[in-house]
Amino acid sequence: MLEFIVFILSLFYKLTVLHGNLHARYIDMNLLDDVIAIGSVMLVSFWTLWLPRRGRIIALIVLDVLLSLLIFADLVYYRYFGDFITVPVLLQAGQVGELGGSIRELLRLSDLRLAADFLLVFVVWAGMKRFKGSRKHRYSNYEAVPALRNTETSGTAIRMSGTGRRRTPRSRLLSGIIAFVLGFVLTVGPITFYAKTWAVGLFEGAWWNLSLYNVTGLLGFHYYDVSRYVKENVLGKPKPSPEQLDEMKQWFAEAAQARKGNNETFGAYEGSNVIVVQVEAFMNFMIGKEINGVEITPNFNKLMEDSLYYPNYYHQTGQGRTSDADFTSHVSLHPLPSGSVFTRFSNHTFDSLPQILVGQGYDTAAFHAYEGSFWNRTRMYEAMGYNHFYTKKDYTLDESVGWSLGDKSFFKQSLELMDDQQQPFYSFLITLSSHHPYTLPAPAKDFDSGEFSVTIFGSYLESIHYADAALGQLEEGLKARGLWENTILYVYGDHDNSLTDRSDYEQFFGKPLTELDMHQILNQVPLLIHLPDEALTGIDKRASGQLDMAPSLLHLLGIDSSSYPMMGNNLFTDSVDASPLVVLRSGAFTDGKLYYIPSPDHQYDNGSCYDLSTRSKTDIEACRLPHEEAQKRLLMSDKVVELDLIPLLRNEADSPN
Questions:
Q1: The pTM is what?
Q2: Alpha-carbon torsion (131, 136, 142, 147), positive or negative
Q3: Statement: residue 41 has pLDDT above 50
Q4: φ and ψ of 439, to 5 deg
Q5: Which residue spans traverse the membrane (predicted)?
Q6: Catalytic residue ranges
Q7: What is the mean pLDDT of the chain?
Q8: 322 a known binding residue?
Q9: Do residues 565 and 252 make contact, with C-beta atoms less than 8 angstroms apart?
Q10: Is 555 labelled as part of a ligand binding site?
Q11: 495 is in an annotated binding site
Q12: Helix, strand, coil shares of the chain as percentages rounded to 5?
């Protein structure tokens, strides 16, 4: 039993180490949480008590290794994504190897505490081995005295028979049952108490993984995640009732009516080529900014003069990061709260922008100088209706920057590949050079980040400066090919840069930053739309988001989007005074007047409601109604994606093949 107790204490210590590294607001670890942690460790290990002692020790060692690896993986994953690993994430685990550079940046020396028990076991094992060796050497001196040797051996046998009595199978069975019952009570009791008091409705809504962890503990969270995945993907979810489908259809019909822009921009650019550039980790906070008199994004700044610029454009991604930005922009639905749509539901039906445009005679292509299997793009892009997908194998790797081909060469070679496309065409380009951990080779560095030099924040600014220079070369290439005058250029950032240290941003802006400041900084990405005739230019400060891309481009091309179940807004509606509701995957939202930041436990009253006119907190009740609408949209989008409901919601007569 001693080894079982040591195992429980060891795992409990590691769970407290993990929790101490989360630094999540409203997520504390009180006495009941300690009880849940201990109980959950007992539940995953009670069966080892049914084994003979040698087998039990081996089983506990294996369990210790596996659970320690899980805790460590969750810790590293949380540092990057602010979330825990789930089954859908594990299904895309082939991508972890590609994140090698980023993972190394996320490791801490203090993480060795998660392996402290292994070191202790090794020291004890080495000591015992040395002791046995010296003991054996001592007894070898008796070889010449048979009688003494026999006496010693006999004494040893007597001692062994006196202290090495084995436990019976019945006693082992009883010990395991007691451990299971005790573990069940210690785990389920407090969780039930939470679920009936301050966490009412949590398991029905599953608001956010961190809120689940706050109730269940880490091991309980993973148990719930696995059971949820089995229920949804193995056993299957029930389809919605006809009444629920009618309610969804009504919502999408009203959304379609709201985004109809009966103005001169509808169809104003019918037949134009469209080039969409999704720039890796391109954030809005440094647009127009300088360091030591040098612009960070000079080409983007110059292009703004003849384009539409949206400074309050929000990324709406979740765990799928780059793939989520791709999905939300092209399908105009929210990403999933867990995992990536690309890897979980590539076999489902979606009304995507390239698929719709193919039905309108467009030649569609995606360009990404990386492995086609990453984020399951090869399969997903086929489902999304692309005619072509150009991957790493289609490029000459003549400029190595970061993960793969540098953006400058990527744009140059992509334009050459576009020469083979028939007009009108739709081209989607995904850049990579400004990916975490932002390591540019010396030849690519031509920007001095000043006081941020030799920091990862400075490396990020240098990477963005390089990406901006590549964007300038793309513009020149389009003009040289005569495409500039008949092409809509749509450029946006995919997600944040994963750098969340407030001190870096306060140093950058030279002033203290509030919770609202930081939340907007980390969620706003720039959007720039350049139209062929440059008829529309300027800064549009309305709140907008990635879900708005597909319906907005369809509007410009004169394609009615009302038959497609889309949640995004039309950036070119007549109303320019009011901002529509923009909902983030985290549950945060803004309508241009209010801004709601949810708490980590996702209890509405623990969140923060801000008045954007004063940038100060206001009565939480002011955000309640839009919060209910935001939650409704997220849950509805999840059902549409997970249950493959688009064929049931759209107008089949007008939908793509």
A1: 0.75
A2: positive
A3: yes
A4: -105, 100
A5: 30-50, 57-78, 112-128, 173-194
A6: 322
A7: 88
A8: yes
A9: yes
A10: no
A11: yes
A12: 55, 10, 35
